[in-house]
Amino acid sequence: MANIKQQKKRVKQDAKRKQSNQIFKSGMKTSVKKVEKLVAEGNKEEAQKAFDLANKKLDKALTKGIYHKNKVARKKSQLQQMINEL
User: Fold this and answer.
1) Averaged over 21-47, what is the pLDDT?
2) Fewest 10 Å CB contacts: which of 6, 36, 79, 82?
């Protein structure tokens, strides 16, 4: 633990941010997996609806700075391609 007061505060803030980011990432991964599952089942309409939600979460992750723009673009593209192949 740091000795400087500002550094102690920074450690606490980082812990809060880390927890928040982990929660957000978990929810995002779940929505992506849901799309993949629906595609595997062959349910195109439901997969498209789930894709819209996953898209929204991916965009939000980008704005929050959780993921790099190229990763988000790649993931969106992969999911859309999976849906288009149905």
Assistant:
1) 95
2) 6
pTM over 0.85: no
Residue 69 to residues 40, 45, 85, Cα–Cα distance (Å): 27, 27, 24
The per-residue b/e assignment along 22-45, b for 16 or more CB within 10 angstroms, e otherwise, is eeeeeebeebbebbeebbeeeeee
33 — pLDDT class (breaks 50, 70, 90): very high
Indicate the residue type of 5.
K
DSSP letter at 86 equals -
Domains of the chain: residue spans and CATH: 5-84 (1.20.58.110)
The predicted-structure confidence for 38-47, as pLDDT tens digits, reads as follows 999 999 999 9
